Amino acid sequence: MIIGEILRQQNKYEEACSRLEEAEYLFLKAYDQNGATHCRYLLGYIYEAQGKLESARSTLEEAMSQFAELQGQVGVASCLVSLGMVYRTQGQYEAAYSAAEEAKSIYVKFRVLQGVANTLLLFSNIHYDRRQYSEAYSAAVEAKATYVERGDRLGIALSLLYMGNILFKQGRYVEAQRCAEETRDEWVKLGNNVGIANCWRLFGDIYWMKGEYDEACCRLEEAKSLFAKHNNGLNSSLGIADCNSSLGKIFRLQSQYDNAIKLLEEARMTYSTIGCKKKEADECAEEVALALQALGSRGQAA
Question: What is the pTM of this model?
Fold first, then answer.
């Protein structure tokens, strides 16, 4: 199970699932229901990250029920956080917020600081999707402080990445770049290539906003290549869509309308299948309309 957990942290999900399924079988054979249930929870966590949302939901609900029977309230809280992530991805923000609040109350009761930090990151994600950037940033900063205290490098890396994304949305590009540099170093230490790709994507967006289009495109293409090479499901698909969206917008500004439309349409198609990305899908559609309008004007001028 420990090897499966390490592989999960490295985003090597297929290998992790194989190890966890093997561990679950051995735990059940040894009549260790607690160990088997923990494996079931980790499998649900991975299914969520892979974008297998219905499998994630059913697996996590099963694990949560088993933890409840075992009087494992902390396990119940862990399942609630992961279920909250599923609800958030599906755009069911009220359900996600409710799950996060319930999980946090359990973690606080049992003084599980790591769990409290995990719920804070979920709150940060929910606020981010709702464009409530101040609240999102405060939650991520608070989570990072706890992860630092506990020496949790994965938590630190995630918090820094979220903080960088939020700062970018707030137009605080210098601070966003600083966060991107810090989180890149953490992902490198963890050997997590999808995390590294997210850093290059953030660097690309920052260069774009600074008007350094060539550097932006270089970073975004590098990120896109890493996402494709280390495809682990939903995170990689969204990463590629984010890169295509940014590249498409840059190409439109550079009057490369055909390339812009192609990339923006690819991004829109991915976003439209994910509940929490509806606004991004609409933005891509608007960008495509602007590119088509410019193409039409160019044709009339010719």
Answer: 0.92
